[in-house]
Amino acid sequence: MSTSVAPGVTVEVLLQALPYIERFRGAVVVVKLGGNAMVSEELAADFAADIVLLHRIGLRPVVVHGGGPQIEEWLERLGKDSTFIDGRRVTDAETLEVAQMVLMGKVNAELVTALNAFGPVALGLAGTDAHMLVAEPHDPELGYVGSITAVNPELIDRTLAMDLIPVIATIAVDASGQTYNVNADDAATEIATCLQADKLVFLSDVPGLLARVEDPESLIREISVSCIEDLIGDGTISGGMVPKMAGCAQAIGRGVGSVHLVDGRIPHVLLLELLTDAGVGTMVTAESS
User: Fold this and answer.
1) pLDDT-flagged residues of the chain (< 70)
2) Where are the beta strands (DSSP E) in 162-247?
3) Predicted TM-score of the model (pTM)
4) What are the structural domains, with CATH classification, of the chain?
């Protein structure tokens, strides 16, 4: 069912978007799509439309995706239990095979198909292609889980030079050809740093950084790196948000222009965050504006 929008509201949104379009034309925007933000066909369609629109107005999006829920679903179908250590899935040879099948053969293919519904705009890639993502074992207890040691950006650069959108599955490889499942947040951060991206956007199933975890109205819309350190120190940032926010600060310190944490369950959240004055998530910057 279509929804009627008042003409004045439409005009206001378009006028808000104009300076951002002008400012960020040609900018590299790395978007990490979490598996929890990909569980709805409607959200997947919205995401594809947002990415293609960003591409059409002159930005250069790079999509990096995970697929934890999809991997879990297929492991359950196969009757295989999952074990986690510090939030990372213990990955034996069979689990690695399932992860590769799901990330490269299913999730990546579906994203590329959704994007290419608007025309031939996207190219599916994996971290194993041309040794784009090089890794080493993260911890022997985790099996084939890797930590990224290097990013080789040539294939990404060539894809962008062809005016295509790279869509990257986060499977990495070592010098011997052994593959590893790698954390998609880490992969997106390393890729954004290597490309010196203007923006790094994390789409997940949380609204952003909250001053009070239990209160969604306490969203912190903008925060500097120094404030992150203060809030970690006083316990405002705690639990699983500590490594996430520390990673955001590290990305800024290594040359990424800004980092955004947004709720991928909100329709068209990318456009709302990047092309409107208020935004809808948390923006991390080097200094407070």
Assistant:
1) 1-10, 35-39, 288-289
2) 165-169, 171-173, 179-182, 199-204, 222-224
3) 0.91
4) 25-285 (3.40.1160.10)
